[in-house]
Amino acid sequence: MRRQAAAEQSGDRSPHSKKVASYKTAFLQGLRMTTNRSKCASTVFIAVILSGAAVPHVSRVGAQTSQTASITIDASKVENRISPLLYGQFLEFMYQGIKGGLNAELIRNRSFEEAPNIAGLSRYWERYPDDRNDDYALAFHWDDASAYPPQRPKVDTGERAMKEHSPRVDARDGAIQRHGLYQARIPIRAGLEYRGYLWLRADDYKGAITVALESDVKQGEVYASADINVIAGDWRKYEFTLRPEHSDPLAQFVILFPGRGRLWLDQVSLLPGEAMPGGVRRDVFEKIKALKPAFIRWPGGNVAQDYRWLWGVGPRDERFTWVNLSWKNELEPSDFGTDEFILFSRAVGAEPSITVNVEGRGATVEEAAAWVEYCNGPRTSKYGAMRAANGHPMPFGVKFWEVGNEIWGDWVRGHSDADTYARNYNRYARAMRAVDPSIKLIAVGDNNMNWNRTVLRAAGENIDYLAIHHYYGRREMAGDPLNLMARPLFLERFYAQVEQLLREIVPGERIKLAINEWGLDLPDERQYSLESALYGARLMNVFERSGNLVEMSAVSDLVNGWPGGIIQANRQGLFVSPIYLVNQLYSEHRGDKRLAASISSPTFDTSREGSDVPYLDAVASRTADGRKIFIKAVNTSPTSALTTTITVQGVIAGSQAEIETVTAPSLTASNDFARPDAVFIKNKAARSGRSFVVTLPKHSVSVITLAVR
């Protein structure tokens, strides 16, 4: 996952004219909601702005005294198909993208591998009841001589093996009778069942232990508890159920040691009974399912070049905790592995798309082929038998496989030049297809056409999709917010260049694009504002206009990871970004065929992304059965609504339209945990017909649905 935009810039590099400066000032004023300035300017034929035959026609209009626009749709003319795979999503092991965000596991650092504090307790664990008084009768030691499981299969990364740890507990008779350890900030709900377990090895410990959910504020207030009788001997799993009587977003999970003697503790787990397939949080699961993702890409991203898939299969408590080299060496549990990812993806209605590690951190072509066999091989094969032993006798049938991630970037393990990558790609493709010839392979592309040219010439015959990633942000905008509003149109021209390259090197329209990472590098309040949604919607309109080439896309990221995550989930709740809202609307109203459309709109100029850029961006599509037409209209003006005349030719439209609009009182309004609906979707009905007028609010994204007779 590249956290910077493509190096290319476009448009006029000359100094600002007074006209450009005035438009930039107006946009900034619009951001601050201190002006009602409107601009009346001429539009130009959109081919000058966008180029290529796949874009709508915009006619020239004269100077205007009010902000008006028009959209004319020819429903009898289909410009291109729109792929059913177009709107997918992207998950990565990145901070709390998986752990704490997607995953329902409530215990952090449940295998005690994080470094300990002075008391000998690993990260997130504290001494109970607290540190007010000396508890001379209870001692902890972060022990690397005993841990569960005692042995794991070796996965060679070329790195020094990480020692496994568990806390050794010595409990004696003392003044503080109710003592142990705890984790804070556990969100619980009254009446919901919480299923947990832990592993214990008891030496000479005599007595029981107690697990409980308690109040952190009112010490001693117990919501639910269970006693566990400890059996002396080697490692043993103890299960328990807790059903709290009260809700508390900041409860404690407590493990108490009323007995006497020595024991070891490891692999503690606490899951809400409502956890969804793959062990996913219910609230996050429901938000993802509402997006109707066509596919979900995993495990990365940059981290795909670190990840070794064997870490994340097999019994949950026997999996590895691994160091995430891509993201500040965070330790990652392997609770969410291949099986969980596929179960989760299918449960939300998405096809899994797996990115294999190419030569990073000791990865090999044999390992990639083995992963395909684990997912798709018969149970009689070596790795198919492993899958069956893990509870899944039938093949998963994973269709989409990406061969490496951003290999051109020196921030990933396995980085190489294009020639080396192409040779490696061919080796991996042959080995993976030898296991399952039906799989679709995605190769690493770039915004650099020289990279694409080299890879396509050497490996084009083995490629189904070329993955290209787009990031854009503060550095590229150079202080001009209008650059952000225009940037997607540069990418539309870029896709035309890629299409021409494909025709030259790999003719036949066989290879398609997967824009399976796109995002913005903006401060978080702007990431979660309407401004970002306008950029996202215009870019997604570009995807639909480029439907002959672009078949897959995914915003970066789906859950947390960085401010671009469109679902931001903490332990107590979540909110969604305006880009999430756009994704939801566009996925629900994808359409199967894009219709010819011409647009008349006022325009603006930018400092880097060209001039005479239309404020209005629109795409029209229809469903396969022809009974509905969707019009996706983005008004990027920061200050003016657009009174828009819509004319539909070639069909008879119904008398009423449904309009769903992503909007907010101001361009700077942003969603957060305190104000999760500052930017929202507004629904209304409007009169429609062969020709009708709608008002597209300033800085808004609207989807207009027409019934067709």
Topology of this structure?
Elements: H1 18-32, H2 46-50, E1 68-81, E2 87-90, H3 98-102, E3 126-128, E4 138-143, E5 166-171, E6 180-188, E7 194-202, E8 208-214, E9 222-229, E10 233-242, E11 248-256, E12 261-272, H4 282-290, E13 295-298, E14 322-324, E15 330-332, H5 338-347, E16 351-356, H6 365-376, H7 382-389, E17 400-403, H8 418-435, E18 440-444, H9 449-459, E19 465-473, H10 474-477, H11 481-505, E20 512-521, H12 524-527, H13 530-545, E21 550-555, E22 567-569, E23 574-576, H14 578-588, E24 593-600, E25 603-604, E26 613-614, E27 616-622, E28 628-635, E29 642-649, E30 653-663, E31 680-687, E32 691-696, E33 700-708
Report on the architecture of this protein.
The protein is of the alpha/beta class and 709 residues long. The chain has three domains: 19-83 and 594-708, Golgi alpha-mannosidase II (Immunoglobulin-like, Sandwich); 87-104 and 275-589, Alpha-Beta Barrel (TIM Barrel); 126-272, Jelly Rolls (Sandwich), CATH 2.60.120.260. Helix content is 22%, strand content 31%. The protein is built from 14 helices and 33 strands. The strands form seven sheets. Strands 31-30-33-28-27-24-1-29-32 form a nine-stranded mixed β-sheet, with helices on one face. It has an eight-stranded parallel β-barrel with strand order 2-13-16-17-18-19-20-21, surrounded by five helices. The longest helix is centred in the C-terminal third of the chain and has 25 residues, at 481-505. It is globular. The relative contact order is 0.16.
